[in-house]
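cron nightly-structures :: item 1 of 1
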Amino acid sequence: MSRAAGARRGVRTPAKSGDDAAEALLGHGFADKALLTQALTHRSAAGAKGQGSNERLEFIGDRVLGLIVAEWLLEKFPDEREGELGPRLAALVSRPVLAMIAEEQGLAALLAVAPGESKRGVRERSTVLADALEALIGALYLDGGFPAARDFVRRVMAELVERQFIPPKDPKTGLQEWALKRALPLPAYDLVEQSGPPHAPRFVIRAVVGDASATGAAGSKRAAEQVAARNLLGLLPP
């Protein structure tokens, strides 16, 4: 979609300088500039029902990012099993980590956001920043292919991957240590909901520590507890 077409449909697009800065950040000149514009367009600045926003690109970017990091970890840690690689992957593609990378790269200033939402600080929200980073990865993949997306991800995440020589703790252990450091009671895990047939159950667990809580869902209670603990750690201060 061209800039003129975007304007006719009510899509607020970033300034040309923003596109140039984004291409410099990504290390890629876009053949389809509309992809870059879409990746930088927050839902609030898009047309009716979010048409033209970066949500669809975020959907594919999330998958591309996961594949790139999984491939990288297999290469980096050839002797580790899936049980060790999984936590590494989860940590590296978590919302807090992606938001931190987006902030470090100055992505907030490049986003097209509705004036009202901009005043409310939507550009600085971690979920918005993380989603925008994934949308850019999705756009880069669609325009330049997997190698272009992989080069960018490896460049901006290199330091984080280098730090991971020791496998990260599982979320429940990390949450327990967080509570102990603050002299709080150990985390509690409550079953909120159980549904589904016996061969495919679904458990929803709430993790609670102090006054904070978060839920997680999975096919077993143990896995749901881990998801809930990871989600709660993402909400707590370091």
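cron nightly-structures :: done
The first strand starts at residue 188 and ends at 195.
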